[in-house]
């Protein structure tokens, strides 16, 4: 899950390479062999490109593509991701010039929908496999015209990863309450271990961390319901409390955290210099590959005083077909594959993430646990699902304001004022 600029640039994916086409059209008439019978000529391969911001998924998607090619040997598919912070701009530029990848991975909700509304994507309502998904799931890639433009492939969730070996070494039990979490952080700090791998250099880390830790303070699903219906706004004390909580955690962050990036955070956790990390499930596969011996597990985010633990969830990425593709038929065939249980199983086991395909179970116990949490104690990632519009988006406004707070240039109240000011420029509560 990682981000860049916005609006039409809230757009997604991939490479400046133009939509690929077949090297040579297949012959319409087969030549005769020496017996005068038509001989079978090998069908010419069609090459498709897949654009994405998920550079870390390259190995997994190459395995998935190989599985697809076993039944579709005449299609060559190149998974060609672009650095996440450059993805939006690169794809936007390509689409405006009538090129871009054949298959485009859409950022979820407003960002991907903006591409559909701009006319760059092929409607997918004819794809029969979409019927296995709920309307809420498909909403992540449904245009304003009501048509579906992307196949949601994975659910994402944020929870707290922790180092089992360090917890055992310092007699820390898996936290069940917010007080337990703070006690665990204190114990790690006292033993010269960084409690949380965290950095504020990249804005998306801040909205993601707040999206995970904040619900216990602002009231999770109940608050989301109230703010989207206009019963409250971001100046609500409960939301202010969630920003103050973010400020209060600084003593548990690494030294010089304002200059720490996602790569640095991951390295701190994988090399066992940090005991915990608030992060999305997509990092599981990456970290296991970096350090197969790492003893880690996850727990949901505990809430303060009497609240319920939560994980924050959303549809993270859908695949669509570029309207300018010269190979739409083959691209649509691959899109249909993305709705199958075979693909869902590959997602669960190769990407190590919960699949959008019902009935898929992962082979990894941590992925199974993450899926179980997502199905039982989830709350929506509010700033992705509901507040990712505006120019700049309200999500980006939150990120920039939090960065200012961590640089001691803004107070939690300043952050709230800016977020509300952004929302006021575009947000209309449901039914009003």
Characterization of the model:
This is ABC transporter substrate-binding protein. It comes from Paenibacillus vulneris. With 432 residues, the protein is α/β, with parallel strands linked by helices. The chain has 18 helices and 11 strands. Strands 5, 6, 7, 8, 9 and 11 form a 6-stranded mixed sheet that branches. Helix 7 packs across helix 17. The radius of gyration is 23 Å and the shape is globular. The N terminus is likely disordered.
What is the topology?
Layout (H helix, E strand, L loop, with lengths): L45 E7 L5 H14 L3 E7 L2 H13 L6 E4 L3 H8 L17 H4 L12 E2 L2 E9 H6 L8 H13 L3 E3 L6 H11 L1 H4 L1 H9 L8 H12 L13 H9 L3 E7 L2 H8 L5 E4 L11 E5 L2 E4 L6 H10 L3 H11 L13 H12 L1 E3 L1 H4 L8 H13 L5 H13 L8
Parallel strand pairs: 1-2, 1-3, 6-7, 9-11
Antiparallel strand pairs: 3-10, 4-10, 5-7, 5-8, 5-9
